[in-house]
Amino acid sequence: METIDTGPKQNHILGSLPDYELTPLRDHLERVALNPGWVIHEPHTKIEHVYFPTSGVVSQIFTTSSGTTTELAMTGHNGLIGLAAVLGGEFMTHEAVVRCPGDAYRLRASRLRRALVQGSVLQAQILGYVQALIMEISHGVACNRHHRVEERLARWLLQNADLNGGHQVRVTQETMGDMLGVRREAINEAARKLQDQGLILRHRGSVDITDRQGLEARACECYQSLRHHERMLPAGYHGSGNSGGNGDLGLHKQTHHAECLNQMGHEHTSWPESMIMQGLNTQQAELSEHIGDLRAAYLEIENLKKQFEDLYEYAPMPYFMLGANGELERTNIAGAIMMGIKHSDFERQPFADFLDKNSVAQFMQFYRSVLSGRCREGCDIALKSTAHRPELAVRLYGAPDEDGAECRLMAAPLSQTHRL
Questions:
Q1: Residues 94, 203: Cα–Cα separation, whole Å
Q2: What are the pLDDT digits (tens) for 208-220?
Q3: Helix H or strand E segment including 45
Q4: If you average pLDDT over every residue of the chain, what do you get?
Q5: How wide is the angle at C-alpha 300 spanned by C-alphas 295 and 301, nearest 5°?
Q6: pLDDT category, 116, cuts 50, 70, 90?
Q7: Of 7, 173, 187, 298, which sits most exposed with the smallest number of CB within 10 A?
């Protein structure tokens, strides 16, 4: 894919460097295209090059032993890929994959390590990025454990848009599910809710943010918290721009910072190498600790999710998940048997289609009451006969989700004459 060469200064780390630090690196910087799906680094492989993106988005991904993937952090023009190479390590601990196309400048890791010893601004900028990365991973641990999928998706889309500098995110629903560590069905439902609220517009392979202010209000608190912490980082580091997704302001501040340093000429003092390595090793220890916490949290969540899914799937009582318009979205095995449908393969259709015509109006009134949170009683209705049973009278009990946008139903036969 052909992209426009925006120059190394479009990367926030390289763009903050004064000429006397950037010039020695220029001859060693190699421009490369970031094509979607390219695996820049794989886990446990030696890091030969680091990459400074000027556009596009790279996901840094953790994969569990069962194959479940979760995004640790996103990197664009705010940072670099291959950070372990300058933190005292030689091997990648996780996977780095291009998600949105763009450009980057590649530099040998050994060359960057030598430049770190000599360049005081480069030292400060990389340490600032490490601090930002630690904050992002830390927030990710809390976010994935305590916030709803819809809120997390809103935050994720905003972060992508900030790094891309626009209002369109090129991504599939499957990829969004992988990055957030949730089922594709959950992502589809969360995206549908955001679209129904007029906040986004879904296309095949992309998502447009149509109401940024509204999406920010819908996102979890982590988004604004990360922006607040980013503004507190050292002068010159303004990773993803402001909360409006415009990176020009951050780049202008960096350019001004670099010009001030240029006026000082070469009369600057580099930090002692021992102090640099001590600072980097401290940051690496903190980063490793947070990644370890994240790994433990995801393993715990994965085990709990599996236990819940088993309880749900094999429960003797029929359970149903209905959307805002009363369409059947999910059921367990007992529910599929009761409705006479295939559990593993069924199309979304109105729950009312399974009811006797005399029960439809009563059910719809009950369902609207459940979604509004006003209903506390059950509803007696009759299910149509199927190939395996006659008409069946059941009592439904319902509870809305947190947003009142979908409903969970449990069905109990009123008579023991018809057994499942």
A1: 30
A2: 999 999 998 888 8
A3: none
A4: 77
A5: 100
A6: confident
A7: 7
Say whether pLDDT at 5 is over 60. Answer: no
Structural domain of 294: 8-147+220-306
Indicate if 225 and 208 belong to the same structural domain: no
CATH (domain of 365) = 3.30.450.20
Question: pTM above the 0.70 mark?
Answer: no
Contact between residue 42 and residue 97 where contact means Cβ atoms under 8 Å apart: no
Query: Number of folded domains in the chain?
Result: 3
3-state DSSP: the chain helix, strand, coil percent, rounded to 5?
45, 20, 35
Query: For strand 95-100 and strand 57-63, is the pairing parallel, antiparallel, or unpaired?
Result: antiparallel
pLDDT, tens digit, 9 for 90 and up, residues 405-415: 678 888 888 86
Condensed to tens digits (0 to 9), the pLDDT of residues 54-85 reads 999 998 888 777 677 778 888 999 889 988 88
What residue ranges in 148-292 does DSSP mark as E strands?
168-169, 200-203, 206-209
Q: What's the CA gap between 129 and 137, in Å, rounded?
A: 12
Nearest to residue 207, comparing CAs of 241, 149, 160? 160
- Nearest-angstrom CA–CA distance, 33 and 55: 10
The reply to whether 262 and 194 lie within a common domain is no
